[in-house]
Amino acid sequence: MSETKIKIAIGGDHAGFEYKEVLKNFLKNYEVKDFGPHSSASVDYPDFAHSVASAVENGEFTFGILLCGSANGVAITANKHSGIRAGLCWENEVAALVRKHNDANILCIPARFVSEELAKEITTTFLNTTFEGGRHQIRVDKISC
Fold it and tell me: Collapsing DSSP states into helix, strand and coil, what is residue 133?
């Protein structure tokens, strides 16, 4: 997907700060905007998850990436936004499935449970997997309240 200019919003919390910095460098072939935090000081993850989700929700960014300790908090927060399908991914197969079957537009990575290398692999899988549509589109259409 990197041949077209994919725009990625990235953010998280203090537990995901180091991986966020690693992924920003790893994603140098994409247009990436860092929504914070900008240090490893303790912060409230909803402040950053809402910013990333809003940027994807309004169409300014193609995808979002959120990183926190378990990735549950950022996923729950992001999924409060209309049109956001944030998937918690801890291995490549899950990253592929959330794109293929759920058309996820925000990747949530649990920084305390994956290695930096695996976080990069998960990100690559997520960005390079396309939505299959078909029977999955029918299901995705039923997600919004």
Answer: coil
Q: Which long-range contacts (C-beta less than 8 Å, at least 24 apart) are formed by 75-81? A: 75/106, 75/108, 77/45, 77/46, 77/49, 77/50, 77/53, 78/49, 78/50, 78/52, 78/53, 78/106, 78/108, 80/53, 81/50, 81/53, 81/54, 81/56, 81/57
Kindly name the residue from 14, 68, 81, 89 that is annotated as catalytic: 68
Q: List domains and CATH numbers for the chain.
A: 7-141 (3.40.1400.10)
Q: What is the pTM of this model?
A: 0.94
Q: Cα separation of 63 and 45, whole Å?
A: 18
pLDDT tens digits, 46-62 = 999 999 999 999 999 99
Does residue 50 have an active-site annotation?
no
Beta bridge partners of 68: 110
Q: Quick check: is 38 catalytic? A: no
